[in-house]
Amino acid sequence: MPANLSLAARAVALGYNVLAVDSDVVVLDDWYWRAKQPPLSSYQLLSQAECPICINGGFSYIQNANPAGPVAWMFYEAVHRAAADPSRVSYVDDQTMLTDVLWSCVTGRPQFGALGFFLRDDPAAMQRLQVANEAEFRERNTPAANFTDVVDYHQHFMTVHGAGSAWPLPRGGYPFNRTAGPRTAAYRAAFADLGVRLPPDPEDPATQQAAANTPAERFGLLSLFAEPARDYMGGWAESVWAHTGRLGYWHTHLGAPPWQGVGHTHASLFPGDFQKQIIMQAAGQWDWRVATRLGGAPSRSFYASYAHADAFLGAQQGNATDIPRLVAYRPGVIRPGISKAQFLAAARGLAQVAVALGAVAAWPAVPCDAEWALSAAGRNMSRPIRHSIPWLHLNTQFVVMPFGDSLDTLQCEWLGFASIDCLMDRQMYGLNGGRGMLAMEFNSLLTRRRRRRLAAVSGSQASLAVASAGAALASPGAGGGHTLQLPQQGGGGAAGASSSSDDGGGSSLGDGSISSSNSSDELVTVRHTDLLQLNAPLLLLPKQARGHIPVLWLDRPVGEVAGLEGEAKARFDTWRLRMRGQAGYGHVLSLMNEVRDCQRLARVMLSAHHEQGPISCGAYTTKDANGQEYSTGWTLMARHMGFTAWWKKWFTVARAVALGYNVLAVDSDVVVLDDWYWRAKQPPLSSYQLLSQAECPICINGGFSYIQNANPAGPVAWMFYEAVHRAVRWTEDWSAVAAISAVSAPDHNRVAMVDDQTMLTDVLYNCIVGRPQFMAMWYYVKDDAAALAKLQVNSESDYRERNTPSGNFTDRVFPVSSGLAGLVRESFWDVSGANGGVNLATVRLRSATLRMPHSGGVWPLPHGSYPFNRQLGPRTQAFRQAFKDLGVPLPPDPEDPTTEAAARATAPENFTLLNLDAGEGWRLGGWAESTWGTQGRVGYWHSHLQPPPARAMGHIHAGLWPGEAVQKQVVFQATGHFDWRVAARLGGSPSRAYFAAWPGTEAFANGQHDRTVELRRVVAYGPGVITAGLSKAQFLAAARGLAQVAVALGAVAAWPAVPCDAEWALSAAGRNMSRPIRHSIPWLHLNTQFVVMPFGDSLDTLQCEWLGFATAECLMDSRRDGKEGGRGMTAMEFEHLARRRELEQAGYVPQSTPYNRINELVNMGAPLRHAPSPDNTLRLGSARTASIPPASNASSAAATFTTTTTSTSSSTGGQAAPQLLAVSLSELRQLNVEMLLMNQQPHEPVPVFWLDRLVAEVTGMEGRAATAFETWQQRCRALRYNELGEYERGLF
Fold it and tell me: Which residues pair with 366 in a beta bridge?
């Protein structure tokens, strides 16, 4: 609960009038002049509306309120309730609590609607409160009927009292401990110390009459959105950006109508990081003098001057740096006729030039006349457009933001650039990117420079100076900058499909260079070497006087800097990768099973809002009108067929495609590796309407599909519609299939044998052959000879072959464009440069032409006949109606004879398969979309290690080691794509971000953070104890000993990393390499086929995770059957924990730092190893050499070993065999009890205790420790590796 709310409550209690505002509130006109005359003067409380009957906490004005009246009680009680600290209190924010106590005043009795946030997912709690469900509780505590619209929107307050001892359960009962805690007592004392009369206590029966006699007060809501007139009641007094500001009413310097007193930027803003500051800049409410003082100099008053958002928001002058030079397009280069795709290509070229020259890119403004900057109303206006306020003709809904000195010179900022990664170089992972400057920042820079020139001119020269200053800035080389020399050559690059609004249109640097149809606007391509050679003299110029920033102008739009190399290439690749959040990937709709899952997702992702905007999420109802659960979880599916969640996904995709959207449909194990849209929007991918991952040489995997520029009534749209349509029909009515197959007839659940990707492939084949057929029927008739005879085929293979159009696929060959040069390959293992490795001139894609299917009234038996009941059931009718309700033309119905001509006349569309297996290590289209098994596990997904950029998207897919539900998260951890911030929020705290905090896979999969447990302490081997000379058997014995120590001390075992030079971690090729091994990508020298997974910050510090530990049973204690086991951490988890502890202990991360910043700080620079010390190294006492039985199979364990000092035959030559010790349980505990107690310090939430020697066994294990270890050993196969069969040992 914000401290300013408590301050406001105390001020009101002292009789003050209070204007309580957030820091994003701006004064637009005289608020008090409005507030002190009718109608506002008759209200004691005026607040911004968050909903039609609730308060937004960003703006409230209290005037002439009784210090002992209902308004004063409201603010007192809001903080008072928070001080009581109920469980899960963080679910309720200040404005929720203010609204709750507002409603208490409206009804005149204490009630607790905010309790709904704590109890809404607890049916038993709702029953105790005597309400049927959460909705009823909410309705009983929401006094909607008590609000009235009487010319002005207001409500009378009544003083609140509990009416004696009555606390009705449906109102929340009495939800506090009647014994006040110390914080609550301190809060009450703070008000008692004021020495003034306070409002009657609603809990005290003696004050009931005083409460009844307290005069009522009035409350009014401001900026209330009123349907259906779309008015904003009270918006003339206080307004919000989304309602009035974005339409120009806040641009007071442009003569906006004076129809608002104050403005609140509030919410519903564009995705970005500095939205509210940017709004102030555009509206002319930004003080550049203050920005200059914060930065330390005029040249440091821009976003690009700061290293990261915290430095900017925290005004850390020491982190502000000078801008060496700027690169900008000369006025007039970006013209109104430019398309969005051309604009983005020109911006990308500008960024490449800036990086090549060590400059900051001045992002260009969008001409406000540009077609794509206009709303639908604006596109119908004559040109040139005369701008006026409100500018409803401009598309200010997240697309552009107007700014300028006058309406005649209005410019528009494209909001895609309004992101931290477009403006600042955060240098994450030690990698440098690029920096940018907003168009309005650049405009301010030029304006201030013009004013300084005018200030140097006196008297009669002033008017001349105005013209000359403007000319100097508009004419490069005349004192306002220098024009960059570009080679005299033609336009460049990839041709031109225009970018769509839902994906590539959101890309900051996402589109290739696209040639304009107008030769004067043609985007030029320049070579990196030419750019440097031609402009070397300009780059040597000294910095301009008086802190000015040199400006280098481009007089032509650049589409590409070809041959970008060295540091410039690395910087641009890093910059483009960081900006992917602005490249359409923020337009994500997460499809969840339940609405409550969406609510939980929103809470978990709260910390990412400043980067990506609010999470979009949807769910389909899982219950009927009576609250009864659907058997399949979805009303349209009568029985299970594959996973219901997948059908919901494709239903959503089908409707989106029917509405004309481009859709990237992915599973949750897909990761963005580079800019997909940049690749998809240029040849060869731009020529396809459907691109899908290959599951087989001619079939679809459902995990990745991209639909672009598809006809909403064409074959691709029909494909997704029909796939779900068939699933709905078969699950609802099996009778037609049963009539064909007597084997299938008795078992309607047999329908589940077909999953979503099988059905998608089936309808794909329909489009390829141009007629309905039913390959999926093969699953229902393959074991029924009589059914096959009915279908007039000889066998199940005959049926499959007749319905599989293998001959209709072709491997098309495409030339590699200059934009894709170096980014494509077909062989991902052979990187010698031959055989598809690198520098390809052509690429192949397996393709097919899709046509609109139609039966023509014929349903041949060998193709499945007509396998549906012609009498439609209610679910099938509901499915069809859902598409009719979209109000758009749908594809021709292939069953309707009257639509045959329309179907035949429908234009064909193109399809291709990606990541198609073409032999060992070969994948056609794998440079666009890849899978873990071929590309990811050999290093191509480790983006922070700078692998070859021959991949855009990754899909983990299948073929993983046995891991019981954690494998895919482990992959993301190893490759650097795991978000530890989200893991911390799921677990409930940063120290619960690890697998060991979860009590089993069910709680982990469902994100049940209330079931997580603390790690308490961790035991790990110290640096250097695990060496490359250890055999696999020795490593396993040391891990088993570590596990016993951990169980004995009630700790979590930090499983050790395998040195990547260890003989048994290498492949056959690696064992023939000289040592030390210099790692490179692809790391074919490492045995990544289920044995080890590399991770680390650099190739020089690479470590390997043994995958035997990367299983749920080795990491979590599920306490199955009530038995306690042990817990472990993967080596990469321990690496994260150790870094976080080091930074905290070294003072680099203040306790006040939000966790959403720790992840970034952890990755800045090299880790500060907090080495083991006598205070945290476990004492082993009189440990003796262990006697360990040899492995049961020498080849599978890499080597047997002895525990004496004889030499081994390991890869380290004649080095002595390491000693593995046996330690006594009683001695281990007695020697370390003080250390275990003393190291549990508040500043060290997860203490780490180190072993400085190898331990193979803890002897004398007994009692609870012995039982727990035995249970853990039975669950975790890695702890009994030598007892496993040969097949299981071969898995890892």
Answer: 412
What is the residue whose two structure tokens read 């029917």? 658
Q: Are 1083 and 939 in contact (CB under 8 A)?
A: yes
CB atoms within 10 A of CB 139: 13
Nearest to 238 by CA among 221, 259, 263, 267: 263
Mean pLDDT across 308-334 = 74
Q: Kindly report the average pLDDT of the chain as a whole number.
A: 82
Cα–Cα–Cα angle for 696, 702, 707, rounded to 5 degrees: 105
Choose among 112, 199, 206: nearest CA to 160.
Answer: 199
pLDDT at 1170: 53
What whole-number distance in Å separates Cα of residue 144 and Cα of residue 612?
34
Dump strand ranges (E) for 533-635.
551-554, 558-562, 589-592, 616-619
What's the mean pLDDT in 564-582? Answer: 73
| Burial environment of residue 387 by CB neighbours within 10 A (0 to 12, 13 to 18, 19 or more) | buried
Amino acid in the structure at residue 440: M
- Structure tokens belonging to residue 936: 């990811």
Q: How many CB atoms lie within 10 A of CB 1242?
A: 6
Mean pLDDT over residues 879-891, rounded?
Answer: 93
What is the per-residue pLDDT across 1263-1275, written as a single tens digit (0 to 9) for each? 999 999 999 999 9
Cβ-Cβ contacts under 8 Å for 1137 (sequence gap 6 or more): 994, 1018, 1054, 1129, 1246, 1248
Q: How far apart are CA 241 and CA 850, in angstroms?
A: 47
> Read out DSSP for 848-901?
EEE-----TT---GGGT---S-SS--HHHHHHHHHHHTT-S--PPPTT-GGGHH
Instruction: State the burial class of residue 356 (Cβ atoms within 10 Å of its Cβ: 0-12, 13-18, 19+).
Output: buried
245's tokens: 């500001």
627 or 577: which leads in pLDDT: 627
pLDDT at residue number 635: 95
Distances (CA, A) of 1200 to 1196, 1217, 1282: 10, 11, 11
CA 205 to the chain's CA centroid: 52
Q: Which amino acid is at 807?
A: G
Return the C-alpha torsion angle 180, 183, 185, 190, nearest 10: -160
- Regarding predicted confidence, which is higher, 1142 or 79? 79
Cβ neighbours of 758 (radius 10 Å): 20
Question: Cβ(622)–Cβ(731) under 8 Å?
Answer: no
Residue whose C-alpha is closest to residue 119's, from 106, 129, 107, 104: 129
Give residues with Cβ within 8 angstroms of 16, minimum separation 6.
none
Distance CA 125, CA 131 (A): 9
CB-side neighbour CA atoms (13 Å) of 332: 6
Q: Give 727-773 pLDDT, tens digit per residue.
A: 999 999 999 999 999 988 887 778 888 999 999 999 999 999 999 99
Reduced to 3 states (helix: H, G, I; strand: E, B; else coil), residue 69 is coil
- In degrees rounded to 5, what are phi and psi of residue 140? -65, -25
Please provide the DSSP assignment of 672-693 as one string.
E-S-HHHHHTSTTGGG-SEEEE
Find all residues with CB under 8 Å of 119, minimum gap 6, and list them.
Answer: 125, 126, 129, 134, 137
Bond before 202 cis per omega within 30 degrees: no
3-class SS of residue 388: coil
Strand partners, 1077: none
- Angle at which helix 70-83 crosses helix 182-192, to 10 degrees, equals 150
